[in-house]
Amino acid sequence: MSKELPIIYISLTGNTHNFVTRLKDQLRFLEPSLNVTLTNVKDLVKGQEDYFKVGKPFVAFLPTYLEGGNGVDNGDVEVLTNPLGDFLAYEHNYAHCFGVIGSGNRNFNKQFCLTARQYSERFGFPVLDEFELRGSNRDVERIATMLLEKI
What is the pTM of this model? Predict the structure, then answer.
C-alpha cells in the first residue's frame, strides 16, 4: 500500500503554491510511490459549502499576512488567510494535522511566519518549519526530507 501525504494550504500571491508544487515534485522524486495531493483552500470558492473532512494525517502550509505594526504588541491580526483556519476548524480537521509550515518575508522581523505560530497555538500542532517567500531549493529539499520522516 502506498503512503499518502495530503498538503492543505492557502496561496494568495502564488508563492506558497509555487513552493508546494516544487515540494510535491521533490517528494515524488525521493519516494516515487508517495501519493501527494495539494488542496488550496482558496480554490474552495464557496467556503464551508466546499470544505471536507480530511480524516487522515496531513500537513498545512500558510503565508503570513497581518495588519501592519510590528507583530509583537500591534499588527498581529491575521488577514486574508482566514479560510485556512476555517478549514482546519471544520469537522475538527485540525486533529489530523501533524503540523504547519509557515512562510513569510524576513523583512518583517517579528512578523516573519507569525501566522504559523498563531495557528500552532490555536490548534495545538507544531510549527514544523519556515521558509521565505517562494523558498529556495534547499528549503524544498530540507522540508521534503523532514516530511518523509514524519509520514
Answer: 0.88
